[in-house]
């Protein structure tokens, strides 16, 4: 019998997902490469960190924390207040790809994450 691990487990469970999100927002906060999307966010990134952590927990097959608290994510709709074009998508992915690379994940997990995030980020474009 073969056992399959969820993406959540491969990321290192709660601590791993939190660390990924923290690296992502630390990069967004500190990098000129992400200045346009940083400006779309509040001065404090505390709430953004918590929401992305809760969302990615369920998205990767772990506890559905975001759904339990806020209902269905309807992510595209929730991003409508922000003008997201190719530039914003690419800045978001720039941060996420670096956050992934710093994670010590198996190469297969890295490929999978980058492919899926590229799809979701592209789907978020609204301009
Ligand atoms: C494509 C470029 C993107 C930009 C510029 C962007 C920007 C933003 C901004 C400004 C907010 C509101 C502040 C906040 O609540 O944190 C937000 C919320 C959020 N974003 Fe993004 N985002 C992008 C892509 C994504 C992607 C790909 C995901 C998921 C993989 C995601 C997940 C979320 C979540 C879960 C929230 C909280 C929604 C809520 O409950 O209000 N975002 N995003």
Summarize the structure.
This protein is mainly alpha-helical. It has helices at 7-10, 13-30, 35-38, 46-59, 65-70, 75-78, 86-101, 107-123. It is built from 8 helices and no strands.
The chain-level mean pLDDT equals: 97
Q: What gap, in angstroms, lies between the N and C termini?
A: 48 Å
- Judging from the principal axes of the Cα atoms, what is the shape? globular
Q: How many β-strand stretches?
A: 0
Task: Give the class from helix and strand content and strand pairing.
Answer: mainly alpha
CATH topology: Globin-like
Name of the CATH first level: Mainly Alpha
Helical fraction equals 55-70%
- What is the succession of H and E elements? HHHHHHHH
Number of helices: 8
CATH superfamily: Globins
**Radius of gyration, in angstroms, nearest whole number:** 14 Å
- Bound ions, cofactors and other small molecules, one mention each: protoporphyrin IX containing FE
CATH architecture: Orthogonal Bundle
- Unreliable segments (pLDDT under 50, ≥5 consecutive)? none
Strand content: under 5%
The largest β sheet comes out as: none
Domain unit count: 1
Description:
There is one protein chain. The protein has a single domain, classed as Globin-like. Helix content is 65%, strand content 0%. The protein has eight helices and no strands. It binds protoporphyrin IX containing FE.
